[in-house]
Amino acid sequence: MRYVSTRGAAAALGFEDVTLAGLASDGGLYLPESWPVFTSDQIAALKGLSYVDTAVAVMKPFVADAIDEAGLRALCAAAYGRFAHAAVTPLVQLDQRHFLLELFHGPTLAFKDVALQLLGLLFERFLSSRDTHLTIIGATSGDTGSAAIDALAGRAKVDVFMLHPAGRVSDVQRRQMTTVLAPNIHNIAIDGSFDDAQAIVKAAFADTDFAGRYRLGAVNSINWARLMAQLVYYFYAAVRLGAPDRAVAFSVPTGNFGDVFAGYAAAKMGLPVAKLIVATNVNDILHRALSAGDYSTGTVTPTAAPSMDIQVSSNFERLLFDLHGRDGAALSAAMAGFEADRRMTLSEAQRAEAAGLFVSARVDPDEMALAMRWGFQETGQIIDPHSAIGLSAARAADLPADVPVVTLATAHPAKFRDAVERATGQRPGLPARISGLFEREERYATLPATLGAIQEHIVAHGTPARVAEPA
């Protein structure tokens, strides 16, 4: 299995190098050179398997010879052994056709744990045989940061510099990051938005001298290994609802397009996905792109679903690569235009191609609150604002009556206690595994939203890729 950049100029790499690199050297994102395709019999063989065994079967083609099957199984067992539910990502039935896929049973209560617990172990395995140090620089709108920090705290040969927008994450999200006092963890609150943080991360990778001196790596969903791990739960859920003999629809609350692109990858592999519902909040660039061809940025509006308060969806580039016929040069030119003008128009043909699998919805704050209220009053389920956006879009979707619809429940409601209480009158308590969070010491730096300020901080507190031996 080889991986190519969406922008066509970077060298193709194997799985280990792609995992450590994160972003391609030409600024693009890595994708498999071709999609492995499962037969109906192979999908049917997943029925009844544990989550770990499902993960091994689904990810094995992507890992190829970088890790043998026994090694991959050991990594998956370690990663998912920390989850609080034996099913890892259990399905919960809401009514005759709607289901929640609970992705928040990991150590930091969000779906990012599913990928990042594994990614932390992959980093450790690959770095153990290399004479190099890795510096992770990441941007978070809330959940990626805490999941990456939990997965990487105290690990050898890795430093983590995590940027979050000051005042734009929930108190639980912030404290899950800033109360981890491991010496290799460095939290930074920037005076700006998530999009500003994401732009700084990409600019740091683009500074080739700096990126080489510190060997920058990525935990954001620009890293292919994250999406590889996330596509597993689409298979896990679908076979429990009748796949391969029955198609299943998924509603995905998303801002950065990573989680829903994992569903697209699963469909490319042969999983019978009826539709992928792209559920956005009022920061609706993805809905505008898919419904009207208008991929243009606006001003980020802070909401009660902060992980979706995004106007530049990095992973959308991976879909655009396929919509441009996998022509890296053509996409590179299109992305250069977007980065200059902050807008791009999808052609009628591209929109029609995307519409074969994707539909989209924009969910406003009132609709989000109504979905939370419906979930509690009609099914007894308390859900967080992001999951409520997905559920609202799922219930409004025009789909055949015999197609089950799975909404991805991306975060535990306790991470957004105020918003949940406003909508339902119920204030969810923190699970025991993060009890004491509000009594712990916080530690983080507050810096301007500039590349220079972040680079200076990394130079002051980080470790170069190769540390000079003492004279």
From TrEMBL:
Pathway annotation: Amino-acid biosynthesis; L-threonine biosynthesis; L-threonine from L-aspartate: step 5/5
Gene Ontology molecular-function annotations: threonine synthase activity
Matching Pfam families: PALP, THR4_C, Thr_synth_N
Enzyme class: lyase
Residue intervals of the Threonine synthase N-terminal domain: 2-80
Cofactor(s) needed: pyridoxal 5'-phosphate
Every Tryptophan synthase beta chain-like PALP domain range: 87-347
Entry's EC annotation: 4.2.3.1
Domain of life of the organism encoding this protein: Bacteria
Enzymatic reactions: O-phospho-L-homoserine + H2O = L-threonine + phosphate
Family: Belongs to the threonine synthase family.
Protein's recorded name: Threonine synthase
Organism per entry: Sphingomonas naphthae
Classification lineage: Bacteria, Pseudomonadati, Pseudomonadota, Alphaproteobacteria, Sphingomonadales
